[in-house]
Amino acid sequence: MTIQAVMFDFSGTLFRLEQNSSWLSDLTTPDGAPLDVEAQTELMRRMTAPTGQVVELSEEYQHAWENRDLDPALHRKIYLEVLRKSGVAHAHQAEALYNRLIDPAEWTPYPDTEAALKDTAAKGVKVGVLSNIAFDIRPAFAMRGLTDFVDEFLLSFEEGYIKPQPEVFRLLVDKLGVAPEDTLMVGDSEEADGGAKALGCAFALVDPLPTAERPDGLLTALRTHGVL
């Protein structure tokens, strides 16, 4: 197989929402106690987990959870509820933390993100970014000078499909003008990103570690599949 296009996931793959203690220092439990480090870490995990339900929900909120990446209003609704159920006592605290989540400037690229995108594009290989997400991530790339290395962005809330639905992968390979069997999907979720395999795409799994702990995961994946 000669790879002619690479589709990259966003969260946990190209960028990561890193834990920032300054965001969480003012958060308190309902009895007024500050959240400890373990609670803060778990809170960030719940805000960024690509799959798997993180809290028990009523029927109303279950619908919002299942459709959160298709509708920005549902996304805000469910994550404010997740924060409430995770011990964030005050609505203004939850709103402030949620606004960090959807701010592209707060997301940190992995150390090899620029090289992975730039070197792939330099090989004449098409580059797509495919994300289950309810806010526009393009500014995260633009502010770091990475937009020119991406041929297509496909975001679930704009298209009405979410990974692992085959339609979302088909849409992107068609936009890139390549066949699925000539395409590599790189992502941090076997369940979501690995859905590309159903179309015949190759798949490379990366670990959504903190950025400092994964210096070359993207480049290793691309080299393993003969892209670089």
Q: What characteristic shape results from the CA principal axes? A: globular
Given helix and strand content, the structural type is alpha/beta
Biggest sheet character: 5 strands, parallel
Distance between the termini: 14 Å
Low-confidence residue ranges: none
Sequence of strands across the biggest β-sheet: 5-4-1-6-7
* Helix/strand order, N-terminal first: EEHHHHHEHEHEHHEEH
Radius of gyration, in Å, reads: 18 Å
Instruction: Report the helical percentage.
Output: 25-40%
* Individual helix count: 10
Please count the beta strands (DSSP E, at least 2 residues each): 7
What amount of the residues lies in strands?
Answer: 5-15%
Mean pLDDT: 90
Explain how this protein is built.
The protein has 228 residues and is an alpha/beta fold. The chain has helices at residues 21-24, 37-48, 59-66, 72-85, 91-101, 113-122, 138-142, 156-159, 166-176, 217-224; strands at 5-8, 15-16, 108-109, 126-131, 152-155, 183-187, 202-205. It has a 5-stranded parallel beta sheet, with helices on both faces. The two termini are 14 Å apart.
Quick gist of this model?
With 228 residues, the protein is an alpha/beta fold. It is 38% helix and 12% strand. It has helices spanning 21-24, 37-48, 59-66, 72-85, 91-101, 113-122, 138-142, 156-159, 166-176, 217-224; strands at residues 5-8, 15-16, 108-109, 126-131, 152-155, 183-187, 202-205.
Task: Please supply descriptive tags for the structure shown above.
5-stranded parallel sheet; alpha/beta
